[in-house]
Write a structure and sequence with these properties.
It holds the Pfam family EXS. The protein is an all-alpha fold. It has seven helices and no strands. Helices cover about 75% and strands about 0% of the residues. The termini are far apart.
Length: about 130
């Protein structure tokens, strides 16, 4: 088991398999932008493109050859990985909260919840509807 695991997890196809879903969504967002010319689709494409540096740096970190005496290269890859993960996670979080959930939108500030917020949260629509009724 351990021999099979190490050979599969070290194969370059592993990084490609990790990147493929993000690639397909990126291409889908660009195609929708091409058809609609709505800039939100470019921002969505940017969200998916932030996954590629994270995957690539993770691949480099896993396959780097380190000197036993020098830990600077390990720290360098760790810092790159942390930076790529921070950028990707932050962008995805902000996108999900603002665009998908509709929070902090101008139309939602200072008023009642819109249907979009109720629909975005699983099971929250009955609660939102109950809060609206006096």
């Amino acid at each position: 088991w351990h021999a099979s695991y190490s050979s599969c997890s070290n194969h370059p196809a592993n990084a490609i398999a990790l990147a493929l879903p993000f690639w397909f969504r990126l291409m889908q967002c660009l195609r929708v932008y091409w058809e609609t010319r709505e800039t939100k689709n470019l921002w969505n494409a940017l969200k998916y493109s932030t996954a590629f540096p994270l995957i690539y740096v993770g691949y480099l970190k896993k396959h780097a050859v380190y000197d036993d005496e020098d830990d600077d290269e390990k720290v360098y890859y760790l810092h790159l990985l942390a930076a790529a993960a921070a950028v990707q996670s932050t962008f995805c979080f902000v996108w999900d909260v603002h665009m998908d959930w509709g929070l902090f939108r101008q139309s939602n500030l200072g008023g009642r919840y819109t249907n979009e917020v109720g629909n975005a949260c699983c099971g929250a629509k009955p609660v939102v509807m109950a809060m609206r009724e006096p």
